[in-house]
């Protein structure tokens, strides 16, 4: 582990704010520490009130008990923290700054209501989904995500579990032809070696204002690759690692991830706090605000996704979730529990509604990946699903 002063390189690679210090973990994760107020000219927004209630750690019966929430790398090693009054930005390693698929098909939206997935004609890659969706006006939502470390076939493939908050036509412009008109804010965990240079899952955020069409400042981005995200927390930031992971047949862990539209910003809750936000104004530029994600969402998805780079011929062997099918159940399959959405603006009510994604269930190939829904479940897991599979492995 080492710590070093601000460098010209860190200034170049951290364009989201004024870097005042840099720290590096023993295995090469680099954090640039910035002044939070340097990210936005108008000043840092105030977060919503803390989410009510304690993260429920078990279902009916002690046989399905989960352990305490995993810790981020910065929570586990306080020597990596920067000066007081600064917040972290995880730096993309220079060797990975232009990894192979970053500008093409490394991220698409989930299947739409008809099961259609927007695909660019030149893309040779394949996305596999085990997805659910509820088509309802909402102002956010989230749930508790099981924490697995899936095996991916190659470094350019990924495996994730996530929530996506979507406005289906937010990017519509009569003067611009697009394959996909959706706008979204998304979050979850992802195992993507080509992005992070390691073989463990990371927290991720993603947003698009233009239907997954192109990357750029205030347009579309993973994490903090391009401008858009505003960081406010000291120890949890997009791209950070959490430990421990679930063990098949052993200890189980889960992480609370939820978005909320509050006072003109899409705030993200991770574990037990608000960690930062996307200004809702990102989505209204050039559009009628009330028809965009700056005003509301009209779809929420919970799902697993696999990206197959097609570097290896044949059907991918990348794991989704734990790499085991839903039928294997507790201590073996991936799961997402306590799935909810916010049906009214936060200023009007704090009440959450039970998620029911039955109208939007979609699986590319049930022989590879599956989702098993329990949206009407009555115990403390409430609305939940088992999700995962081994591909052709």
Automatic annotation (TrEMBL):
Pfam families: Neprosin
Domain of life the protein comes from: Eukaryota
UniProt xrefs under PROSITE patterns: NEPROSIN_PEP_CD
Sequence ranges assigned to domain Neprosin PEP catalytic in this UniProt record: 119-393
Name of this chain's protein: Neprosin PEP catalytic domain-containing protein
Segments for region (Disordered): 1-87
Sequence ranges of Polar residues compositional bias: 1-28
